[in-house]
Amino acid sequence: MPKHSTSIGLMAFAGTLVLGAAGLAFAQGERAQPPMPVGKRTVAQAAQPPVAATTPAPSPPREWTGESGSSGHPLMQASAIRQAAANFEQCLESLWPQAQKRNISRAAYDKYVSGLTPDLRIMDLMDAQPEFTKAFWDYLDILVHDQRIAGGRELLAKHKAIFDKVEKAYGVDRYTVTAIWGVESNYGTLGGDRPVIRSTATLSCVGRRQAYFRDEFLSALEILHRGDVTPDHLKGSWAGAFGPTQFMPTSFKRFAVDFDGDGRRDVVDSIPDLIASTANNLKKDGWVTGSTWGYEVAVPKGFNFLLADRSKQHTLAEWEALGLRRPGNKPFPHPQEKAYLLVPAGHQGPGFLMLHNFRVIMKYNPAEAYALAIGHLADRFRGGEAFAQPWPRHEPVLSRDERRELQELLNKRGFDTGEPNGRIGPKTRIALRDFQASIGQIPDGFASATILARLRGR
After folding, report:
1. What is the rounded distance in angstroms from the CA atom of residue 203 to the CA atom of residue 214?
2. What percent of the chain stands above pLDDT 90?
3. CA 49, 55, 59: angle at the middle one, nearest 5?
4. What residues pair up with 18 in beta bridges, in sequence order?
5. In angstroms, rounded to a whole number, what is the distance separating the alpha carbons of residues 246 and 47?
6. Residue 12: per-residue pLDDT
7. What pLDDT is stored for residue 258 in this prediction?
């Protein structure tokens, strides 16, 4: 999803992928700004396999539970939500002057806004707390599988002429664009069915992210006013991301292009516009033409895992000199390219040398597991093999409470993780590495059940 926040509900931390309940999403478009976890699609959607030929009728939409949000934010209290809902019409009227400044006519404003009611079910989705976890490798299994690979190859063949033109115009790899298409919406079959204008209007007037979503709401109005996408097709996730590659309205403004020349930038129904707009997004985020995302590597015994840090970049030749090798001893095509080392499962699993384009994919969605899945799926489209090295599938995944406990125990021992929150970020990884080094273990920063037991003194 295009622009895209620095914080989403989908988070890859120390080898585990932590997700919230339905409503947290995978998308670029809903990469909102911290601390809101927004995505284009819900986790539940992202985890689904390809849709069967016969799809059952959707169940009726669920209503708001009437409960306060779990974030504890004052605007997410049930009483505040009800009060804001009662004032919804007046709130939307107060936004008219801002719409006018964007050259939206009063007639158009009334056409799209009159009669809107708040979708309060979004309040439950907005504050959904992480209720389950899956290992990094489990989500790779969900996002990269034979059906999705076959579906992507079919689209690549079907739209070859369009991809040829887009690659020439933007210099962005067709396989990566198709991988985003597949992961974000399963090639358009799971894009969400909430009217974007209603969702963004709701979030503009109710809940804890009103200032952020007012820009999305006004941008959605601009899309409708220009006629780029019709109201009945401007549907998407609860946070407003829409189209097969899930654009937020503000991202649409920045990246959408009219590639088919019909005068409309339609990322929903125009395949040329969809493909070109997604490629334009990646290009403007810094995509390097002719380069890949990175490489799987085997990490040798005795390796200094303190080097596995996003801030520590070396050339591929330098990493090779440190003993890192591609499976089958394949050479690095461009040994002077710089990369950092990612070891999602510590010393028990494969390593990955991440090039600049991996960082570009993470701008689309700032989760390492997502970006790795996109890169790997793209490789599979072009005939690449599955990852050669095994994952430590025997390792149990720590719950959020267990991760918080791990942080608390590290703090008590003098290894600073900051305020315990159950999220294993860079500071916790450093603290964990320091603790591992202090007890003579490999300092790989992997938050395993074994290391938690050791911290507990067992």
Report:
1. 8
2. 78
3. 100
4. 11, 133
5. 16
6. 32
7. 98
The label of the residue with tokens 């996730």 reads: 237
Give the separation between CA 330 and CA 326, rounded to whole angstroms. 5
Please report the pLDDT score of residue 41 as a whole number. 35
Distance of CA 314 to the CA centre of its chain: 26
* Interstrand relation of 351-354 and 294-297 (parallel, antiparallel or unpaired): antiparallel
Cα-Cα-Cα-Cα torsion 275, 28, 16, 193, nearest 10 degrees, comes to -90
Asked whether the predicted pLDDT for residue 32 surpasses 60, the reply is no
Give the total residue count for the chain: 458
End-to-end CA distance of the chain: 44
Task: Give per-residue burial for 438-448: e unless 16+ CB within 10 Å, then b.
Answer: eeebbbbbbbb
Q: What's the one-letter identity of residue 453?
A: A
Query: Helix 160-170 to helix 146-158 angle, to the nearest 10 degrees?
Result: 80
pLDDT at 397 over 90: no
Indicate the pairing of strand 235-236 with strand 194-195. antiparallel
pLDDT band at 19 (very low <50, low <70, confident <90, very high): very low
Rounded CA gap, 297 and 316, in Å? 11
d(CA 218, CA 104): 9
Between CA 287 and CA 294, with CA 293 as vertex, the angle to 5 degrees is 145
Q: Checking DSSP bridges between strand 338-342 and strand 294-297, what pairing results, if any?
A: unpaired
Alpha-carbon distances, residue 258 vs 222, 228, 277, 372 (angstroms): 16, 9, 8, 30
Measure CA 214 to chain center: 22
